[in-house]
Amino acid sequence: MARAQLDSLDYKILHTLSSNGRKPYLEIARECGVSGAAIHQRIQKLTAMGVLKGSECLIDAASVGYDTCAYIGFFLKDPSKFDEVVERLREIPEVVEVHFTTGQYDMFIKLYARNNDHLLHLIHEELQALGLARTESLISFKEVFKRQLPIHQRNKD
């Protein structure tokens, strides 16, 4: 994907939204010294370009009953089935991220389970049926922090 051509206003908008995605357009406009309509148009442009991928509501997993967060590396029996496995993973609601990686794994996923018994069920009943040679699991005890990418205006290359 080609790098988007962004100007200083675009970077100001991205910086503001990355720290507070719910900030009203008019407030962003005041901070940037432009009209609310200009901010609205820029945000639509950034979305159409694929720079902004929408907004999301972040839910604390434990507060809704998902106490176990796991990262699982997959070794596929047939790595050419990657796309097929990805489509089947989309059908498992507990799987929240899927990555095609370098290194020892063919792919790497993040999922949430209600508890360790539920995780074991997901591995044995859902994941092993995908054509995996084997898996390696890591359980996260606690997410210490999570943040957006740093957005700074770039110097012209």
From TrEMBL:
UniProt entry tagged with the keyword Transcription regulation: yes
UniProt xrefs under PANTHER family: LEUCINE-RESPONSIVE REGULATORY PROTEIN, TRANSCRIPTIONAL REGULATOR AZLB
One record GO biological process: response to amino acid
Keywords associated with the record: DNA-binding, Transcription, Transcription regulation
Protein name: Transcriptional regulator
SMART domains hit by this protein: HTH_ASNC
GO MF terms, alphabetically ordered: sequence-specific DNA binding
Annotated HTH asnC-type domain residues: 6-67
